[in-house]
Amino acid sequence: MSDFVPFPKIPRLKRGCVITEKIDGTNAQVVVGEDGSVRAGSRNRWISPEDDNFGFARWVAERADGLRELGPGQHFGEWWGLGIQRGYGLHERRFSLFNAGRWSTGRPECCGVVPVLYAGDFSTDVVDAVLENLKREGSRAAPGFDKPEGIIVYMTAARHTYKVLAENDNEPKGKADVA
Q1: Model pTM?
Q2: Domain containing residue 148: CATH number
Q3: Within a 13 Å sphere around the CA of 136, how many CA atoms are in the beta-carbon half?
Q4: How far apart are CA 20 and CA 98, in angstroms?
């Protein structure tokens, strides 16, 4: 007989959630080693200035000293702006960290953070209202840009993330987006 496997705890649905703007760029990560080393990655591979992803590895190499302030670990975010996906009408590229709760303050000067649109109890009505407001008012990450991609809903009790696209959210993955 095998070892006993308990049924996992089920998180409550009507608990906290954080809704942020989904920025249309390319997934990126900065990894700071315990030894202070700094490395760049995309969603699915390590990158370098010689084998880059829209210049992110070069950007990381040039800002390694400041990025060490993030501390040891993996730090995920979106590399976005000029020439990447929607571009957002920007003349530069930006790195926005995903963990808005952790990085709302005290982050390196070279890093932004995804805009928090709502923090409170979850309901589908709240999700719909936040998305409609974003579509009506435009991007908070790049004010004046009127075609935001959508929202990310982080369920705090479940520690899980979901996306809702502003357009074609009901289409299968690949038809609606590439993220």
Answers
A1: 0.90
A2: 3.30.470.30
A3: 6
A4: 9
